[in-house]
Amino acid sequence: MGLRLHNTLTKRVEELVTREAGKAAIYVCGPTVYDVTHLGHMRAAVVFDVLRRYLEFRGYQVMHVQNVTDVEDKIIARAQAEGVPTDAITVRYLEDYRQASRALNVMPPHVEPHASQHIPEMIEMIKKLVEGGYAYDAEGDVYFDVSRLPQYGKLSGQLPGELRAGARVEPGEHKRHPADFAVWKHAKPGEPNWDSPWGRGRPGWHIECSAMSLKYLGMGFDIHGGGDDLIFPHHENEIAQSEAYAATQPFARYWVHNAMVMVRGEKMSKSLHNYIAVADALGRFPADVIRYALAAVHYRKPMEVDEARLQDAAKAVDRLRIALASAETILARAGSRSTDGPASRLLRKAAESARTAFTAAMDDDLNTSSGLAAVFELAAEMNRVTDQVLKGGTDATETTPGLREAREALRTITAILGLRLDSAADEDLARRVRDLAVSLRQEAAQLFSEQPGQTLDEIVAFILAGREQARAKRDFATADRIRTRMAEAGILVDDLPTGPKWRIATDGRRPTADASGPRA
């Protein structure tokens, strides 16, 4: 069997059978750009980034579409509060979202449609709904008539007869039924608006995603994703208007929803003022740590974010980084010499077991938490073997074939989770260590006669070589100062009988902002 995903529409975990064999078409509801990006937004981004990466790993050709909502009530309210045009708000906060996504290694979508650039498609869709009797004009507002669709509520279980205005249903004095929703809103002073057959106005939120997903993916695309707070009314209404418009089903084959990020038992949100901005979190933790924390919990389980969880994630990432860094050290020591000794064979077996267990876990509804258990078993075996080599108990050459295979397995698996782990990927850390190398060369030219390299591994090796010269001259005070300054830069050094062993500090970088908790 292949990948199985929980389908909110059927309430079951089902095998993924795509519209076209070997291809997967995904639409994810993207950001409404009116404020800073917080960890709650990034959970959805990370979840569907992992899904995309895993589909590609399994051989699918993925088409990933994610919209930008740049026409919406909250954006208008923010612009009016600041006294600026709406596009000043959307440009500012879209860039904030993109910066957060880049920092957390979220791949950009193949297509990123903006609502404001697809008004003609929305108007055409609304016209057809009105012509078919599924929508009606009410004093310049156009509403979708939910009574015309007997299957309305099939995604969320919310039935029209049980809904009333105000209970997650927008009010409207000209509605025929409280559950009817706006697909077009008449123009109000100071709001962006466009010409339409019903007068000047702007689209409703729900019609935006329907029009854009159908334009780029067509009816019956494979996966529609988003947070579970969008199931009703947004996704329910998308289904209703899209299936009425196309006169066929399904709008999307699989509906995949991630649970929310929580703070002290409440959903992280701007309205509750309990959010942690991504920029603030990045001031205290490396991107890999935040990414790990967001990916480690199964996507359908609510995720509580606090200092303890992020510290635990930092320790977990450190274990993985140490496994890779130690492997690189041993492989460099062995050079071209290679023997498939007992340790090597154990590592090859561990690598194969990890690949098998990780794939089985991910096939089971993207069970990242179980998949990570396999990752850490592999990392533990790698660390056990490399420690034996560093302590002189095993010859480096007897580990190399298996160690290379284990290293590649660990890199492949963690890349699916979006973790970079390559120490050179942390540009801030690399910059600090490079600055330290330049400073040390100026201060102690007799110890640092060569030029430092380019990668973090090369720069650290350069500093350690100079430190070893100081130790050889019994200048232990200088050696200790160098080690202290390396620790301040984020690199910890352990002096072992076989030579120094370095690792990235657990926190990965020095604090630059106060992100100890959610904003008040």
UniProtKB/TrEMBL annotation:
Source species, domain of life: Bacteria
Keyword Iron-sulfur assigned to the entry: answer is no
Q: What is this protein called?
A: Cysteine--tRNA ligase
**Record organism:** Candidatus Segetimicrobium genomatis
Gene Ontology CC annotation, any one: cytosol
| Motif, 'KMSKS' region: chain positions | 267-271
One GO term of the biological process aspect: cysteinyl-tRNA aminoacylation
Q: Which cofactor does it need?
A: Zn(2+)
Q: Write the record's keywords in alphabetical order, separated by commas.
A: Aminoacyl-tRNA synthetase, ATP-binding, Cytoplasm, Ligase, Metal-binding, Nucleotide-binding, Protein biosynthesis, Zinc
Q: Where is the Cysteinyl-tRNA synthetase class Ia DALR domain?
A: 357-429
- The enzyme's first-digit EC class, named in words, is ligase
Q: What is its main location?
A: cytoplasm
Complex formation: Monomer.
A GO molecular function for this record?
Answer: ATP binding
From the record, which residues define motif 'HIGH' region?
Answer: 31-41
Positions binding ATP in this chain are K270
Q: Which InterPro entries does UniProt cross-reference here?
A: Cys-tRNA-ligase, Cys-tRNA-synt_Ia_DALR, Cys-tRNA/MSH_ligase, CysS_C, Rossmann-like_a/b/a_fold, tRNA-synt_1_cat_dom, tRNAsynth_Ia_anticodon-bd
- What PANTHER family does the database record attribute to this sequence? CYSTEINE--TRNA LIGASE, CYTOPLASMIC, CYSTEINYL-TRNA SYNTHETASE
Where is Zn(2+) annotated to bind? C29, C209, H234, E238
Family recorded in the similarity comment: Belongs to the class-I aminoacyl-tRNA synthetase family.
Keyword Aminoacyl-tRNA synthetase annotated: yes
Which Gene3D superfamilies does the annotation name? Cysteine-tRNA ligase, C-terminal anti-codon recognition domain (1.20.120.1910), HUPs (3.40.50.620)
